[in-house]
Every structure is written in C-alpha cells, then in structure tokens.
Amino acid sequence: MRSFRRGRAAIAAAALLVTGATVLTVATAPSMAAGCTGYVGLTFDDGPTAGNTTTLLNTLKANGVRATLFNIGQNAQNNPSLVQAEKAAGMWIGNHSWTHPHLTQLSQSQINSEVSQTQQVLQQLTGQAPKLFRPPYGETNSTLKSVEASYGLTEIIWDVDSQDWNNASVDQIVQAASRLQAGQIILMHDWPANTIAAIPRIVSGLSSRGLCAGMISPTTGRAVAPDGGTPTNPPTSGPPTNPPTSAPPTNPPTSAPPTNPPTSAPPTNPSGGCTATYHVINSWTGGFQAQVDVTSSTTITGWTVRLTLAAGQTISSLWGGVNTGTSGQVSVRNASYNGTVGPGGSTNFGFVANGNSSPAPSGLTCTPA
C-alpha cells in the first residue's frame, strides 16, 4: 500500500506505450456483450502505482474485461504514463480525491480542492474530465455531495466489499465477487497482489452466472453494458449513488437529511471514552446506506461499536471497520487506519444493508480499546 502468469488473452486490438525503459502492452478489451444477462462494475481504487498498475491492466486485458479505476490525483500526477495506459487499455477512469483524506472531516473549500485538482490532472492526461467520484473510505455527507454536483460528478460507493484492503485471501476475494448481482459494484484496489491473482477466477465465476463486466452509468450509478446500454436483467433495487442535480446550497447542512424517519439513533457514551452516533445516508426500496460516527472526549487508539439491527435488516457490505458480530448483533472494530481518535476528534464507518431503514438499530454503544 507483485508477477502473475497471464491467461489466454482476449484482445481486440493492441498497441505499445513506451515510457523510458518501461514498455506497457495496452489494448481495448472486448465488451463481452454476447451471452450477458446482466452487467457488474469491477472497480479498483488508489492507483495508479508503479509496479502494480501495469500488472493489473495486463491481467484485466488477458481476461477480456474492462474496469473502472478510481485514481488518486497525486498518484496520477506522479505517474502520467500509467494514466494514459489505463485509457489506452479501454478502462474507465474516475476521481478518488487528491490525497485520499477523510473528506467528511474537511471544510467545503478543502473538499473542493481535493476534487478539483484531481479533475484537472485527469482531464489533462486523458482528454476527458471524470464523471464518477468515489469518496475515500466510502465516507460522504451533504457538503461533499454539493461539491460533487458542482463538477457534474456521480458519487459511487459499492454493493460488495472484497476486503482486499484488509488482507483478504484470493479465495475470500473470489467468494465476495460471487455475491454480485446484475447492476451491482464491487470494491477492489490497485495494489493487493491477491486481488490481481483473483481476477481470472472472478471473471470465470461471473461468466458462469451470465454476468459480464460493464461500465458504471453516470446517470444511475449502476453497472450497465460497456456501450452504456441498460442491462438485460437490471437490478430491482440498489443505492441511488448519483449526486443531486440541483445547485449546491449556499450553506449546506453537515449531514445528509433523513430519508425515512426515524433514521437516526441518539448518541451513546456508556464508557465515557467514545460516543457513537448513527444516521442513514440514503435509502431505497429494499435497502439503505448508513454511517456511524465515532467521537471521543479523550485520546483513544481503538474502538468497538455495538448495535442490534432491527428485524429484517442485514448488512451486505461494510467499510471503515471489521464486523465481528453475528446475525443481527453487529460488533464493529475499527479498521487499522482509523482507530486513533484525539480529544474532540471523530471518525466513522459505514455500511449498506438490506431491509427497511426504519426503525433505527437499537443498543448503540461505543467502547474504546
């Protein structure tokens, strides 16, 4: 935060991009439209990175698939030839902020800087401004959404978390991908070796279920055919990840408004060390996206949040933490990158769940490590 045996190539056209002593084979992968009953979005965050992105591109091409790559702006600036290789390989390129910060902890002007710098460098390198934005850590709020809207960006979270950032094995990454349904999106990353090793098996598993890799529609935020068409078997539900189309408010609220009250639970602080506050970010028929904010009155180096889901609610993906609970009893331990919280500071984790967003989960507690 890396070499693999290439499988049988399915490459429609090839070219060579030479940069210094590095030679990258790039190609436009076939759309795999024939025989597809639906499409899914394969996404890879945090690139481009020297020593990783080339292998990722070659593996995707060898397996005849295209993917959406959410690039970090400063990585793109430092590796311009790799961004151009991504474009030449037929990949879709999205904005993943300039430095990968916790955007929900920044001011609107700071968020704007993170988004605008990345838009600018990616447009310079590819000739086209990104249309998709993935917030680092999946953390979002209305301030960020208003900035996204001002640049015409559609916010893309995910339906399935591969957990490759959490050292998931190849088998675990493949198993996560097996949960994908038509229209859905999986979170993966540019840098884990296990992710690249899992790609051939992911593609084979999808194909066996009539699913193909597609593009993410800037209009709906869902996976569609590579030419932008609608899938043959579109999903009946999913998180509405596209940003608002109206102009950003002059003084936006600090959190997204509830969409299906009651959507929040009162903050709890039984231990005196940390406080957990739950609120719903988005809801749709059959599912919702929620976020839990963790604040602390003293310095803590780790935390665990516990809550009980309401009847019919089940978590389908979670980020910013590790769920060690079972069934409706959720026990989320901090991820490695967000365990430390200073006095008056905060962090959060989020999840996508099946079921109705109301009532809110009960028994919300936060315990410091």
TrEMBL record:
Residues 217-274 are annotated as: Disordered. Residues 38-214 form the NodB homology domain. Residues 232-269 have a biased composition (Pro residues). The keyword Signal applies. The keyword RNA-binding does not apply. Keywords: Hydrolase, Metal-binding, Signal. InterPro entries: CBD2, CBM2/CBM3_carb-bd_dom_sf, CBM2_carb-bd_dom_sf, Glyco_hydro/deAcase_b/a-brl, NODB_dom, Polysacc_deacetylase_ArnD. Residues 267-369 form the CBM2 domain. Residues 1-33 form the signal peptide. PANTHER family: CHITIN DEACETYLASE 1-RELATED, GLYCOSYL TRANSFERASE-RELATED. This is Polysaccharide deacetylase family protein. It comes from Plantactinospora siamensis.
